[in-house]
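Morning F.,

Quick status update on the modeling queue. The single chain you submitted on Monday has been processed. Sequence for confirmation:
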Amino acid sequence: MPFLDLTATSVELTRQLCDIESVSGDEKLIADAIMAALAGCEHLELVRDGDAIVARTTLGRGRRVVIAGHIDTVPINDNLPVVEQDGYLVGRGTVDMKGGVAVALKLAAELSAPPVDLTWIWYDHEEVDSALNGLGRLARTRPELLEGDFAILGEPTSAKIEGGCNGTARANITLRGLRAHSARSWVGHNAIHDAAPVLAILAAYEPAQLEVDGLVYREGLNAVGITGGVAGNVIPDLTVISINYRFAPSRSAADAEAHLREVFAGFEIEVTDMAEGARPGLDAPLARDFLAAVGGEAAPKYGWTDVARFSALGIPAVNYGPGDPLKAHADDERVAVGEILECERGLRAWLSAP
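Structure tokens below.
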């Protein structure tokens, strides 16, 4: 089993974590290593659920903070082991999100008497189907382990606080025609041609920018796929356009679906996937203290993240971690060493304050 040295710097610990391959579905080895590394921390109560690990303090503090991050990565593509280049750690997982995991592990081991009780969570299967997500599994089967007054998810934010997240909906618009021989097209009806007005709606659509609790979330509505066609001499009788709607956290799932049906009124539409967003959570007292400790201004999170799982439980949550999210999943994935150290500084300052 690989050895994780929790006395090493958070930068070196990031390297150690990344060099343990943990593509989604293959997290056992890294979960074993994390459990072994934390086993000597007498101030932590450890719980393992599959390949998700929960470490909790039980100091009787009046408030509890949850800090979570996933331990899996997307597939490797000749980008391990990690190398250091020009102030960056380069390799799979450095951004998404083992830099954040390293910071959390180091602080979990060292902060034995924080001013709030802490729940640290490292979970599996974030990069695959939502039904497999380890944090979602805990929310369904062990919700008491997620209880808290405020939560932080270590997703990459370039070491800046990003509040909440947009929701996301996927839908299919189906266009039906009538097959015919293309030499006698007038006796059929071309379903691909019927896609034109749908695409025109999408091209002309102006996404809203909605202010939610002081942050402005930009929405988006886009075609992400189109299928149709039978053969080179057949008029197609079916075309399906797949769309993705990213909506502000002030909208519910019902609001998002109603908006889609309004925009595409008269067309056959089926919503295939829906996940509500999360409000920023920055009005919570703990969030204000955290923002003051980290410094700077909070920004909105445009993508969907697992902060929404905390929001669904009534826990305000933000994203905060090292790494440029534009480099997540890239073959040249890389995190600035300075951002790892800055996230450690920010969290340590906040969790060490009297």
